[in-house]
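pasting for the record
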Amino acid sequence: MRITTYIIALTLLVTLNCLSRPAISQTFREGPQVSVFYSEIDDSEQPFGLYVPPGYKPDKSYPLVIMLHGAMSNHRLALKRVFGHSNLPGENDAKASRYFPDWKPENYIVATPYARGTMGYMGIPEEDVYKVIETCQEYFNIDRNRIYLTGLSMGGGGTLYLGMRRPDLFAAIAPVCPAPPSAFYPLIGNAHNLTVAIHQGGADPVVKAEGTRRILEEFQEKNTVIEYYEYPGVHHDSWVQAYGNGNIFRWFDGQVRNPYPERVRYTTEWYKYNRSYWVKFDKLKPGTHANIDARFIAKNTVEVKAENLEAFTLELKGHPMLDHLSPLTVKINGNTIQSQPRLNHYFTLSSGKWVPERYEAPVGDKQYGLEGPVFAAFTNRHTVVYGTQGAADATEITRRRNEARELADFSIAFGNYAQPSTVNPRIISDREVTPDDHLSSNLILVGTKETNSVIAGMADQLPIHMKPESVTEYGMIYGVGIRGKMVVVASGVPFWNNLVQYMPPAPPQAGRTVFNVRSTKGATTLMEVKDLLMVRKYGSEVIVDTFLESDWKVPAVAKDKLLQSGAVILRD
């Protein structure tokens, strides 16, 4: 009894002692350096450049600048660029990467993600950028309302894309000679509360000024305030003007995030990006962009215009326009609703009418953290599994392993500079899979239920199976949510070898500068695939290219096409 009492008392003492101590953080020297963070995507250490201002004081909050490098560059060069240092005459990037020169100190924390090299800033590199921000917030006292984003060329495009994806994360963004991915354009209206300044060389032969001016026009068409600086006669090195003499830091000095804007405009197609400021999207229509325009028109009175949205929440705690002890009047698409006093106000579209009710996603349905598309399974920790069932010999098993490796490499291919070695997921056989693998990883299953025992074990939970006699003529890939993780099944012909011939032509990009997504094999990347793609090897024929329903069921039209092909078996 005495021993038990002593142990309890000691436990309480240790707990109280831990609670009373400040968090222990890593020690950094002042000035430029390189640090790392741990990536759960492939259990690797990833580098990023870091600058700590002289005389850093942990009890003082500091602004944070995130700088994104361009194609064929790196985090070390990016740190030099943002402080206004280009290569010396005759100095190549390899030599310039070896050292940090002395430079004028700035009272900012600055971080420059490596982000897997030249992969753009969608998917895995995007997650790396967010992880660098989180790491800086863990190590340093960062001012939440003074986080800034900038980048050049590919990094300028990444700045536009990430800024529009999560506009409430940043106080301001400054893209330089930006080449954004096409996914950026539908999101331009998201900059309503975000200060944007674009820098561009007037004679840039790589990212042409005409395309960047078109981006400026599209921002202006959305009634978004934007600054534009074009440097006549300057080529693809406009960062010299943008970053020289501390220019970018002086511009950031005057920008502060407003966490409680009176108006929020936001567009998204994924639960992954389901909130901005005080608006949260709770139910989306798969395959569409949901839009909301919410504004306070008086104290406790909000007007909302919503499109392709079936449920949302207004998270108003702390908003100066809310008296949480009084009802909230909300006018949604012309219909007025009274919501009882509370901090969070919930609204759901029921039988075509908005009602003040909270939406709860059914267990297993598409939701935050579990929604697809196929590519999403590769942007978190994932394990690629090839089958060994029915293999005649070791040569066949080697072929299957190589096919799994090709799919893993294809999933991260970008531009003409794909770097497969920058992401290294586990690639194992079906015999090596453990129960923990599905609990901790998304599973990428290559083969069919006849060749892969993991697919066979999940047969009753998977919606589609390719028939054995069809694997030499058809190629198929799809992703579904099972027990809280994504499961991707790739069966039949390795579609990635000639995918470009199957995919529909991209929408016209007249006047736009787009950092095209192409792999080294000339095929469109996996980012172009929705939830389900099935193609025919011969004839360049797309059988199905679609999103699945919210409950992961195959849409009726796609189901009919699959059955007509005679190549698959569908589970009811």
